[in-house]
Design a protein that fits this description.
Number of strands: 4
Helix content: under 10%
Structural class: mainly beta
Strand order of the largest sheet: 1-4-2-3
Largest sheet: 4 strands, antiparallel
Distance between the termini: 15 Å
Radius of gyration: 11 Å
Strand content: 15-25%
Length: about 60
């Protein structure tokens, strides 16, 4: 696991990531088995990498695809 730098890391661009949020749980994903795993790291539906002080900020990430 790598800490969130506050912006989309170059290694994650165009890929999918698994995230752990500040509140201590893994970010939930769509339960649809046909959906790809994790979250899109960037793009129109990508993660919000900003560090705002919210408990829903990304704390850590792992590139998975």
């Amino acid at each position: 696991m790598k800490p969130n730098p506050g912006y989309c890391p170059a290694e994650a661009e165009g890929k999918r990531v698994r995230v752990w949020l500040v509140h201590g749980r893994e970010g939930s994903c769509d339960d649809n088995p046909m959906s790809p795993p994790g979250w899109a790291a960037d793009g129109r539906t990508g993660c919000n990498w900003a560090i705002t002080g919210s408990q829903f900020d990304i704390a850590f990430y792992q590139v998975i695809q």
